[in-house]
Amino acid sequence: MKNLVEIKNLKMKYAVKSGFSANKNEFINAVNDVDLKIKEGEILGVVGESGCGKSTLGKCILRLEEGYSGQIIFDGEDIAEEKNLKNFRKSAQMIFQNPYASLNPRMKIYDILKEPLVIHGEKNSKIIRQKIEEVCELTGIDKSALNYYPHEFSGGQRQRISIASAIILKPKFIVADEPVSALDVSIRAQIINLLKDLKEKLKLTILFISHDLSVVRHICDRTAVMYLGEIVEIADNEDLFNEPKHPYTKALLNSVPVISREKKDSRIILAGDVPSPKNLPSGCKFHTRCPEVMPICAESCPTLDCIGKNHLVKCHLYIGCENSQK
């Protein structure tokens, strides 16, 4: 299976003003030297605490954020080159977290779905109508809804409309940024199952960003764990959820509420707070909270090393067999 997306040494910093001084600039380190490969046809999950850089990573991949450094290769082409950008825009789309904010309230649903087709050169009104009706059938939107405005729909229906808008150009790659977190629990399963169905029918590759570990375990093929802008572990779901290796991954999975009293008593409690992304710790970024910290952790930053088939970990506890994602 080939890699559809390859990310090399991706970094993203945001400049912020410090105090009352207009001359002194500080930087928030949102994404720190990320290497990642997304295989064609898979759903890759990205999990981590709020503020760890998940959404920024997704936006950088789609070039919705500018000012990043590093290289992003999509289907063999560097998207930094302007000549590749228009085709990339057609082939890669995003589903945003909040369906209440991602749809233009002044446009009817028909016009919302029509807009990307027109932008990419489709002028035939019959073909436009046909494609809109096809995408409505795929996403479970009644054709009568096309003459209404977004505010006239529930959150679940709005997210279906957002998904329809994202797939109407038949992209290869979708970034789904917390696509069910703003929805009622009763309709989350419907949207998750819709995404799984669309992935199979349209042969999509999806980067699925979420903080809900149960959703990620259900829908994703592999999962990457982020901490302070870095990927600290990535593996097939079965390995990651059953045999986590990085101390942060263990703590993250251990934080999921359980009914069993035995598991509750063995819960991992992390010391301290998450360090500020303006002043990152030296060495391993997790060493200030890690229950298995060693002296080398504060001195040297580990590499993301392979410790088994498709299982990579960024931790001094493990000796990697090679520093790659094959």
What would you say this structure looks like, in words?
The protein is an alpha/beta fold. The chain has a domain at 237-326. The chain contains 11 helices and 12 strands. It has helices at residues 54-61, 85-91, 109-119, 125-139, 155-167, 185-202, 213-219, 237-242, 247-254, 261-265, 295-299, and strands at 3-18, 21-39, 43-47, 69-74, 77-78, 92-95, 173-177, 205-209, 222-227, 230-236, 304-308, 311-314. An 8-stranded mixed β-sheet has the order 6-7-8-3-9-10-12-11, sandwiched between helices. It has a 4-stranded antiparallel β-sheet with strand order 2-1-4-5. It starts with a strand and ends in a 12-residue tail after the last strand.
Q: Keywords for this structure?
A:
12 strands; disordered C terminus; 4-stranded antiparallel beta sheet; globular; 11 helices; 326 residues
Q: What is the succession of H and E elements?
A: EEEHEEHEHHHEHEHEEHHHHEE
Report strand %.
25-35%
Which class best fits the helix and strand makeup? alpha/beta
Fraction in helix: 25-40%
Largest sheet strand order? 6-7-8-3-9-10-12-11
What value does the average pLDDT take?
A: 89
**Rg on CA atoms, Å:** 21 Å
Structure annotation, total helices: 11
Largest sheet features: 8 strands, mixed
Overall body shape: globular
Which secondary structure elements does this structure contain, and how are they paired or packed?
Layout: E1 3-18, E2 21-39, E3 43-47, H1 54-61, E4 69-74, E5 77-78, H2 85-91, E6 92-95, H3 109-119, H4 125-139, H5 155-167, E7 173-177, H6 185-202, E8 205-209, H7 213-219, E9 222-227, E10 230-236, H8 237-242, H9 247-254, H10 261-265, H11 295-299, E11 304-308, E12 311-314
Parallel strand pairs: 3-8, 3-9, 6-7, 7-8
Antiparallel strand pairs: 1-2, 1-4, 4-5, 9-10, 10-12, 11-12
